[in-house]
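Why do we care about 3D structure at all? Because function follows from shape, and shape follows, mostly, from sequence. That is the central idea of this module. The next example makes it concrete: a single protein chain, its amino acid sequence, and then its structure expressed as tokens.
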Amino acid sequence: MPQTDDAQHYFTQQVARLLQGRDSAVVDAAQLTDFDWQQLCFEREDQLELKFSGAGGEKVFRFGYEDYFVAEPYVARSPAERCIGRQDKLVLKKKYPGYKDTVEFQLADGAATP
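And the structure:
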């Protein structure tokens, strides 16, 4: 797997590209990175933690909630405290439509939630 700083920068740029000119987009989870992974887990701590794991090890991205957000685990379609695979779909949604600020992650209909 590439260096986390480079991978996290790519992730940030890719989310911006996928949302370019739109307030929301449904995407394959695999589109978010340029490295191979098998499982992505979302954890709500002091910061949002995205844990990518697979044969090459584990990568953890940490973001402030002003950049990326997931609702509490009891909220419908929240990926918090859940894991998804590369083939699963996510909704990328601007928390405040029309602005560049916070992007919220939601599970698309039919996404796995082991």
